[in-house]
Every structure is written in structure tokens, then in C-alpha cells.
Design a protein that fits this description.
Strand content: 5-15%
Largest sheet: 4 strands, mixed
Helix content: 40-55%
Number of helices: 11
Distance between the termini: 32 Å
Order of helices and strands: EHEHHEEHHHEEHHEHEEEHEEH
Structural class: alpha+beta
Strand order of the largest sheet: 1-2-3-4
Radius of gyration: 21 Å
Shape: globular
Length: 337
């Protein structure tokens, strides 16, 4: 086909933080190589993926996380990891071009240079930062990366984080019937179900995120139709989606080794109580993206027009009335990553 490569994210960040089966990955990689396509593994959450495999796949139950990750890496032609996703480092990443001796899989120097420029311009300088930043590593930075790698290979550390996220998501669903999926590193809320009257074109996930930021000081990241849905404007001026998703997802990524699960549950219970009491069911304003570009990165520096300011301020005020005070006295805990 017209695809330039096979890109596999582990865990599947756009699909609820769910693990990728290695049987499926190997099958897809074989098909890609048969068509002389590059296999690119984005391993930002590869250690959570390895932990899932160890727990759920009998073929990997007796292997260490390190052994499983090595097998994953060996499947791909290139492998990338953002150190921001590790357990101790705040930024940076690695790019591995490992299959340089395979004629069917090699990257040319021109391709490498092009990808290097893209990574530097989209990731190092702008990706999620909002300002130009220097990417050089100091000795302290290297030590942070080493300690983060050690924690990522600690099964108890990785498993505890997965179980923490699972527990919080399960309790929110049981107590409030909140439409939520627990992933390896994050909670994914079905914002379109919480805001049924907000049109897809008016960004339910981003609108719910704005409400939570204002009312509860909790910041998430929309990973739904605005990012993955192929949003575009037709010749008649109508907003359309070429790849409309079944769920407009708001992701709440849980910081590593920071909060106890009971605190997370209490902090998010205000959202559950608001949903249970019907505070969201008639909201319809939403947001309108300004200067939208469908490049996969718009949401990191996005600007929006608030369609119904009175509606927004009213629901924020009502949510604050439900809040027990736990969250408003603290800083944001849900990161964008």
C-alpha cells in the first residue's frame, strides 16, 4: 500500500493504554517486511507492555522484563523511547537504528537525517514544552536516565503502577458508573458519553479537560477525534472526520511514584459525583479549535474559542461545590504525557 512504514506504539497510547500482543506484532512485522516496509516501534511504555505480557501471556511468564523488552526491540528496524515516560527523567529520548545490515530494512542516511531533523524540531524543541529548550545531557541527566531505566526493569515498581491505575479506574466505574478505561499508565475517560450533547466538532474531550482544569486543577490530554479522527472542513464549511473514533477519549496520565491510589481516587471522585448527579448531561457549548492543523501535534499547543462562557462558568461553580477540598489545595496531578 501507500504506507511508508509500520509504526507500533507500546502500550497503545491512543487505544486506552492497552498492551500489544507480541504474536500480533510479529505477524504485522513479517507482513511489513514482505512489502519492504520499515518497522518502527515506539516503546515509550514498553516496560508496562512487558509487564502485561509477563502477567497475561504464558509464553512470557518466566521471563524477566529485560528479556521481554529485548525481544520486542529485536522485532523492529528502528526503536524510539521518550525518557519523559520513564520513572525518573523529565525529558530527552533515544533513537535506535539497529537493522543496518539488512538490505530489506536499512534506513538510508538521507532518511536518518530527515527523521533526526523531525525529532529535533517536533520533539526536543516544541513537543509538549511550549518553549524552545536545550536538549543537551548533563552528568546529572545521564544519572537520572540510568536510575529510570533501573526502575523500569523492576517488576514490583512497574506492576504497582499498573495496579494503582487499574484500582482507581475500577472504583470510579463501580461507584459512579463513570465511563472509563484503565490503561497501563493512564485513565481514559469517554468524554463524549459524559457530554452527550456536545457535538464532536466542538471537542468533548478538550471541553471536559477545560472544565476539570478550571474546577479541580486536574489536567488531562484529549486523545480522541481532534488528534486521531482526521478532522477537516468540507467545501461547504462543515467539520467532517475521515477516521471518526468510537470514543472521544480524555487521557489522565498518572505521574510515576508520586501519589497513593486512595488520594487519586478521592481527587477524581468529584468528577464521578458530578457525572452521577447529571451536571454534564445538558451541556452543549464545547470548544472551537483555532488555526487547527491535522498534524498529530496540534493538541500540545492548541488554542480554542469557548463557545458558551456562561455555561462553562456555571458547571465549574457547581463542581467546586461538590469538591471535598482535597484537590483544590494541591497542584495538578495528571500530566499531559
Amino acid at each position: 500500500g501507500s504506507a511508508g512504514c509500520l509504526l507500533m506504539t507500546m502500550t497503545d497510547n491512543g487505544g486506552g493504554g492497552q498492551p500489544v500482543s507480541l504474536k500480533n506484532l510479529k505477524l504485522l512485522a513479517d507482513r511489513a517486511h514482505a512489502q519492504r516496509k520499515l518497522v518502527w516501534i515506539d516503546g515509550c511504555r514498553v516496560y508496562e507492555n512487558a509487564c502485561f505480557l509477563k502477567a497475561l501471556d504464558p509464553d512470557y511468564s518466566d521471563m524477566s522484563l529485560n528479556e521481554i523488552v529485548k525481544e520486542i526491540v529485536d522485532i523492529g528496524d528502528v526503536f524510539t523511547v521518550s525518557f519523559k515516560k520513564m520513572y525518573s527523567h523529565s525529558g530527552g529520548g533515544i533513537f535506535i537504528n539497529q537493522k543496518i545490515n539488512s538490505a530489506s530494512r536499512i534506513l538510508t542516511q538521507q532518511q536518518i537525517d530527515s527523521m533526526d531533523f523531525t525529532i529535533m524540531s517536533m520533539t526536543t524543541a516544541d513537543y509538549g514544552n511550549g518553549f524552545m529548550s536545550y536538549s543537551g545531557l548533563t552528568g546529572d541527566g545521564i544519572v537520572e536516565i540510568m536510575s529510570g531505566m533501573a526502575l523500569c526493569l523492576n517488576e514490583a515498581v512497574v506492576a504497582r503502577r499498573i495496579l494503582e491505575v487499574c484500582y482507581v479506574g475500577s472504583m470510579l466505574h463501580q461507584r459512579f458508573n463513570l465511563p472509563i478505561i484503565s490503561g497501563g499508565h493512564a485513565l481514559y475517560i469517554a468524554a463524549d458519553r459524559i457530554l452527550p450533547c456536545v457535538e464532536t466538532a466542538h471537542c468533548p474531550a478538550e471541553y471536559l479537560n477545560a472544565i476539570m482544569m478550571k474546577a479541580l486543577r486536574i489536567r488531562g490530554c484529549g486523545l480522541g477525534n481532534l488528534v486521531y479522527g482526521g478532522r477537516h472542513v468540507s467545501g461547504l464549511g462543515e467539520v467532517e472526520y475521515s477516521k471518526r473514533l468510537p470514543m472521544d477519549s480524555l487521557r489522565l496520565a498518572v505521574p510515576r511514584e508520586v501519589y497513593e491510589q486512595e488520594y487519586l481516587l478521592e481527587a477524581l471522585s468529584t468528577l464521578g459525583r458530578a457525572y452521577q448527579k447529571g451536571l454534564f448531561e445538558h451541556l452543549s457549548g464545547g470548544l472551537t479549535p483555532l488555526d487547527y492543523v491535522d498534524n498529530g501535534f496540534y493538541h500540545f499547543g492548541a488554542k480554542y474559542h469557548l463557545n458558551e462562557e456562561d455555561e462553562f462558568n456555571d458547571v465549574v461553580s457547581r463542581m467546586r461545590g461538590l469538591d471535598s477540598g482535597t484537590v483544590t489545595d494541591t497542584a495538578t496531578f495528571c500530566s499531559i504525557m
